[in-house]
């Protein structure tokens, strides 16, 4: 049946109890508690449930070595078998680790599809677990993220359908519904310029759902996507609001290098030359930028040099 164990239930049954990546103290405490429990009760039949919790916490914290530790735990769980619900959650966790890596996305999408089939076959009793909507929604969002990263023919359209499935699901977990709203807004920005008003509204709704986790990556990203939709929409009021939103991101105490670079480059495109040059210089000094950001830096360098 796969009833969640005590620690799993404690961490996931309450939306507010699952720590955001920025909440290092909570994550460290939860990791220490779970590791200690595993070492003290290694003979428990449900110990692989606790290993799953530990793996998810490692992914949430994301410090050097955490993803590799999580991957090893996920593989250990799959090697041991486990119930179908646990296997489905583990496949989703493994797939999530591949989101940033385009060469791994096809295999990871297959993991999501396997997880989805397992979840569909589970007894109705399992569907009523407090954790079920969390992981069902997560499976859709992770698959959508992977398809956007892979970007093969039809991937973005399939990602859009996955986002819409979550948005329409009344039982969808609030966090992943926020991410789905944001994902749809970003796809509108990329592909449907005539729907920019909808993109703006979706990004705002996403922020409303996610703002309880101010340090979360996607909470901050929602501000950037709304700003970019507004810049493309192009009214004077849009530019004023976009600048305010981007400055809010730049001043945020929560630093995600790619989001910070993206916000500063967006600001450089709408501010006057002295400020724009300063924003560009700050991005140029950043290390480990994604190829997409690096290409945008080069384009902006050329644009500003032509404007002098």
**Binned strand content:** under 5%
CATH topology of the domain at 1-172: Serine Threonine Protein Phosphatase 5, Tetratricopeptide repeat
CATH architecture of the domain at 1-172: Alpha Horseshoe
Provide the structure class.
mainly alpha
CATH class of the domain at 1-172: Mainly Alpha
Can you summarize the main beta sheet?
Answer: none
How many DSSP E strands? 0
The overall pLDDT, averaged over residues, is 89
Q: How are helices and strands ordered from N to C? A: HHHHHHHHHHHHHHHH
In DSSP terms (H or I, runs of 4 or more residues), the helix count works out at 16
Our Rg estimate from Cα atoms comes to: 21 Å
Q: Give start-end ranges of low-pLDDT stretches.
A: 1-16
End-to-end separation in angstroms reads 68 Å
**Broad shape:** globular
**Percent range for helical residues?**
over 70%
């Amino acid at each position: 049946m796969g009833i969640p164990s005590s620690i799993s239930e404690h961490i996931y049954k309450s939306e507010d109890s699952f720590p955001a990546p920025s909440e290092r103290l909570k994550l460290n405490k939860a990791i220490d508690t779970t590791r200690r429990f595993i070492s003290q009760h290694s003979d428990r039949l449900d110990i692989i449930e606790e290993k799953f919790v530990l793996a998810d916490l490692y992914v949430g914290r994301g410090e050097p070595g955490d993803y590799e530790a999580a991957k090893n735990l996920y593989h250990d769980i799959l090697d041991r078998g486990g119930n179908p619900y646990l296997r489905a959650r583990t496949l989703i966790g493994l797939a999530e680790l591949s989101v940033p890596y385009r060469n791994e996305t096809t295999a990871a999408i297959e993991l999501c599809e396997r997880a989805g089939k397992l979840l569909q076959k589970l007894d109705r009793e399992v569907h009523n677990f407090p954790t079920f909507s969390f992981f069902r929604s997560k499976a859709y969002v992770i698959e959508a993220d992977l398809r956007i990263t892979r970007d093969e023919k039809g991937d973005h359209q399939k990602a859009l359908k996955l986002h819409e499935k979550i948005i329409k699901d009344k039982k969808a977990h609030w966090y992943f519904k926020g991410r789905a709203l944001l994902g749809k807004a970003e796809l509108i920005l990329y592909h449907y310029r005539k729907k920019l008003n909808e993109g703006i509204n979706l990004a705002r709704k996403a922020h409303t759902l996610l703002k309880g986790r101010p340090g979360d990556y996607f909470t901050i990203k929602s501000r950037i996507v709304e700003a970019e939709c507004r810049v493309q929409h192009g009214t004077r009021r849009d530019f004023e609001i976009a600048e305010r939103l981007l400055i809010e991101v730049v001043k945020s105490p929560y630093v995600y290098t790619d989001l910070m670079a993206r916000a500063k480059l967006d600001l450089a495109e709408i501010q006057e030359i002295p400020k724009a040059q300063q924003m560009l210089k700050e991005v140029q000094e950043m290390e480990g930028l994604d190829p997409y950001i690096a290409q945008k830096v080069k384009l902006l360098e050329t644009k500003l040099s032509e404007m002098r």
